[in-house]
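Backbone-to-sequence.
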């Protein structure tokens, strides 16, 4: 696994940034950077299952490892979803199993420092290096626009 780190300072409260990250409507807006039509099926509660999906029924099956509202969300990937079916046995599923995404929000003078640390596989390293900064800019835009 490769650990990638991204961060951005947003002129909004941690509560506002948290809402933008995990509210269904705004989640769909900022994750479109990764794949048009992306969405998540979950209640975002600690221990809950998450299906990260695109409109074609492909994506990831994960679980909420940690949820400290307005401070930290950790997601652990368990497998992949192919054609709407959860798969934990394929080569791709095994490559992703155990990888985490960690979102940390810290109150700073300028507003909120949002840090994302993500474990990924080599095949996706350059994709995430290109798309995460764009996704964080979208979160910033959404949070600051709705002040």
């Amino acid at each position: 696994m490769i650990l990638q780190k991204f961060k951005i300072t947003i002129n909004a409260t941690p509560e506002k940034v948290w809402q933008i990250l995990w509210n269904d409507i705004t989640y769909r807006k900022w994750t479109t950077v990764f794949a048009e039509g992306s969405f998540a099926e979950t209640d975002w509660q600690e221990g809950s299952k998450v299906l990260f999906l695109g409109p074609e029924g492909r994506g990831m099956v994960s679980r909420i490892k940690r949820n400290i509202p307005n401070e930290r969300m950790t997601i652990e990937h368990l497998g992949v979803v192919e054609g709407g079916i959860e798969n934990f046995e394929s080569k791709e599923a095994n490559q992703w199993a155990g990888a985490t995404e960690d979102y940390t929000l810290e109150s700073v003078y300028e507003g909120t420092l949002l840090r994302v640390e993500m474990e990924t596989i080599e095949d996706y390293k350059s994709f995430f290096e290109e798309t995460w900064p764009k996704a964080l800019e979208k979160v910033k835009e959404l949070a600051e626009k709705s002040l």
